[in-house]
């Protein structure tokens, strides 16, 4: 059963059948009618929408239309104001990822034009400082998609023109003006930086960030990352430390207690094996993990062969005759995985240390009393680390590998 | 399949280079389909450039477009498009966003500060084919989807997509094939 008619009012009365509306996180839709659907034995009055992008049908309970943020397409004046904001110099990006994530999620679920604009501008500014993690890259693309769709719908221009105009504001081409005011042309460097060197977006230490490209590094990188970005890096690594599993914390508490109990002489073989695991870390400064994009390849970090071909490219034999080779990927810094493995090995070595019966009980007590564990940890820092002989017996395999 | 149709004279080695680069960038077949005539009715008001959307509408071409096919028209004359809120900017091509056809111009290539004809045309074509697969502009200057007027576009002549765009295009291609 369907009741269709242009006089039907939807929501607060501002929406009618046939209107083009914006569905938050979905894009531009057209209201096709109001129908009564029987769902789970109940009659529901639903508003049917057709998504312009792919023609998909969306049904929303009529009572919830305003609650989900369904709204009319923005006016031309609102779009003009949007471009003013896009072309204006932006604030510094929010570097605290937790705050950023919460704010961006709220903005996107709100479904407003301003929210999508703020997300796009904030993430765009951030992308000039450091590469975006995968989730934020998706969010950036979603915000861009929604804005491009709305600009095209509001201004009645093709999508490609809307996309180009959006980027004329974000990356102004030489000579571009906004309301008579010339815009600063886009550069490879961070806007406002006086350095003449080419700056690629800095690579962050995000553990969930994958290096997006497979290219060899061929740009000069500025020495200094913004101080705020460095501070945020430190914060994020601290947060990452706090996210360790409970098991690891428990193991650490046990290890500390055990070390307090029975200090043993360092076996030569064990010392050798431990040293081997830290050789790579010691050889390269830890700042490499915070290196800019391109200096550290994802393949290298994972220990993959450095000359791996791009996935989209066909095998060399399959590629048409005369296809040029891509530049070979340069050698990269020691992998993050390797340092994690070394850390795990160290923890395992400590845990496998033979303990006196009392040690385990003390460890359990230490687990319950966090302050006590912290105290014990401080004490352990003073005492030299001494792995047991039992570990040394297991080490030859690692030595052989080395 | 990406089909290349020329709207003017192009050296065969340039066309082969473009076909190879597109094939490598998107992992799908690319062939040189043939030639078509440039519709004079698509000339813009100033009679010096062609109107992109109008050109795609009025082009007389028999090339069939199947589910996952994309047609790229290559031309050497300057292109223009409707003026947007920011005014007129540089125009290297006009794709039907998420659609099947795009027109790419080689106008300006080989001049000072621009890429050579073969490399530049391949990169421009890859960029606009990306728009046909619903890809948006990318902030990574090494990605082919970086805005074509930005210095990064000429700084990195390799035709390659960033990981995000590559995965998105692969998803779209699979969806198109199914």
Number of DSSP helical runs of chain B = 5
The total count of helices of chain A amounts to: 14
The count of DSSP E runs of length 2 or more, i.e. the number of strands of chain A, is 10
Label the structural class of chain A. alpha+beta
Major beta sheet, strand line-up of chain B: 2-1-4-7-6
Strand segment tally of chain B: 7
The main sheet of chain B comes to:
5 strands, mixed
End-to-end gap of chain B: 14 Å
Helix content of chain A: 40-55%
What's the end-to-end separation of chain A, in Å? 75 Å
Multimeric state: heterodimer
The biggest chain-chain interface is: A-B, 63 and 48 residues
Helix and strand arrangement:
The complex is a heterodimer of chains A (402) and B (178).
Chain A: E1 2-3, E2 9-10, E3 15-16, E4 20-23, E5 27-39, E6 42-51, E7 57-61, E8 71-72, H1 76-87, H2 97-110, H3 113-129, H4 134-155, H5 159-170, E9 177-178, E10 181-182, H6 227-242, H7 246-261, H8 268-283, H9 298-302, H10 336-351, H11 357-368, H12 370-382, H13 389-394, H14 396-401
Antiparallel strand pairs in A: 1-5, 2-3, 4-5, 4-8, 5-6, 6-7, 9-10
Chain B: E1 2-6, H1 12-26, E2 30-35, E3 50-51, H2 52-58, E4 70-75, E5 79-80, E6 93-95, E7 101-105, H3 117-132, H4 151-155, H5 163-177
Parallel strand pairs in B: 1-2, 1-4, 3-5, 4-7
Antiparallel strand pairs in B: 6-7
């Amino acid at each position: 059963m369907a009741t269709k008619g242009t006089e039907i009012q939807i929501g607060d009365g501002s929406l009618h059948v046939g209107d083009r509306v914006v569905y938050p996180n979905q894009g531009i839709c057209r209201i096709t009618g109001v129908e009564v659907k029987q769902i789970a034995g109940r009659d529901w009055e639903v508003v049917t929408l057709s998504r312009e992008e792919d023609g998909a049908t969306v049904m929303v309970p009529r009572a919830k239309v305003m609650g989900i943020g369904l709204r009319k397409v923005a006016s031309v004046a609102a779009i003009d104001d949007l471009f003013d904001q896009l072309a204006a110099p932006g604030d510094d990006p929010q570097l605290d990822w937790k705050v950023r994530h919460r704010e961006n999620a709220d903005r996107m679920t709100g479904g407003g034009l301003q929210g999508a604009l703020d997300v796009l501008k904030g993430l765009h500014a951030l992308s000039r400082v450091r590469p975006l993690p995968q989730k934020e890259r998706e969010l950036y693309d979603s915000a861009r998609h929604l804005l491009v769709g709305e600009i095209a719908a509001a201004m009645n221009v093709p999508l490609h023109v809307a996309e180009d105009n959006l980027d004329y504001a974000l990356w102004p081409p030489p000579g571009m003006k906004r309301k008579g005011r010339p815009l600063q042309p886009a550069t490879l460097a961070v806007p406002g930086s006086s350095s003449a060197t080419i700056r690629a977006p800095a690579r962050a230490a995000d553990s969930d960030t994958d290096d997006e490209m497979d290219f060899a590094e061929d740009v000069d990188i500025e020495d200094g990352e913004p101080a705020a970005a460095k501070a945020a890096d430190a914060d994020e690594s601290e947060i990452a430390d706090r996210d360790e599993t409970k098991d690891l914390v428990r193991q650490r508490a046990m290890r500390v207690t055990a070390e307090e109990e029975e200090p043993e002489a360092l076996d030569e073989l064990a010392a050798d094996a431990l040293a081997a695991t830290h050789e790579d870390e010691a050889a390269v400064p830890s700042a490499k993990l915070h290196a800019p994009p391109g200096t550290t390849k994802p393949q290298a970090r994972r220990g993959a062969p450095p000359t791996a071909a791009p996935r989209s490219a066909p095998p060399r034999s399959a590629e048409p005759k005369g296809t040029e080779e891509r530049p070979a990927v340069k050698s990269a810094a020691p992998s993050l995985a390797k340092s994690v493995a070394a850390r795990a090995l160290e923890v395992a070595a400590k845990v496998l240390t033979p303990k006196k019966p009392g040690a385990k009980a003390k460890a359990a007590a230490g687990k319950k009393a966090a302050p006590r564990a912290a105290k014990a940890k401080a004490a352990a820092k003073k005492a030299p680390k001494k792995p047991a002989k039992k570990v040394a017996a297991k080490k030859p395999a690692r030595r052989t590998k080395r | 399949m990406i089909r290349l149709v020329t709207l003017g004279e192009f050296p065969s080695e340039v066309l082969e280079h473009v076909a190879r680069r597109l094939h490598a960038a998107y992992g799908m077949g690319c062939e040189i389909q043939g030639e078509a005539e440039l519709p004079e009715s698509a000339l813009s008001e100033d009679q010096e450039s062609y109107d992109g959307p109008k050109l795609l509408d009025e082009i007389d071409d028999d090339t069939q477009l199947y589910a996952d096919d994309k047609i790229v028209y290559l031309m050497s004359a300057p292109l223009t498009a409707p003026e947007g809120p920011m005014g007129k900017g540089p125009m290297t091509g006009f794709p039907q966003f998420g659609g099947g056809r795009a027109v790419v111009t080689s106008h300006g290539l080989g001049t000072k500060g621009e890429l050579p004809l073969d490399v530049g045309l391949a990169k421009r074509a890859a960029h606009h084919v990306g728009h046909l697969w619903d890809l948006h502009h990318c902030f990574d200057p090494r990605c082919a989807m970086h805005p074509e007027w930005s210095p990064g576009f000429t700084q990195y002549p390799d035709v390659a997509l960033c990981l995000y765009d590559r995965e998105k295009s692969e998803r779209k291609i699979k969806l198109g094939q199914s």
